[in-house]
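Thread title: Can someone regenerate the structure for this chain?

I was given the following input by a collaborator and told the matching structure tokens would be attached. They weren't. Posting the sequence so someone can regenerate them.
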Amino acid sequence: MQGATIFNSTGTPAYAAAGTTAAAHIVVGSGTASGSALAVTLSGAAAFTSGTTYNVFAHDQAHTGATITITYTSGTAFTITYAGGGSTATDGVTWAAVGT
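Best answer:
Regenerated them for you:
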């Protein structure tokens, strides 16, 4: 896990839109891309159930106009790719993943 931090394993509850508690967690991290892509591997409590049970939100730290694409491989792996907006092949990327 590239600088990842896990929130909500046993702390503050996450809520569904209906106001009920949800069994979700949040993982945040950052890294330096290689070839305009950042591959992220999650392990332990950071892992999600599958590649369809979470969403990733990402940001190119140097170029806010970059187009970001997330490819979900599994509950333990995803890849962030970006292009345009002045981005370079080795930009820093911050991300947050939310799900179950």
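The longest strand covers residues 25-32.
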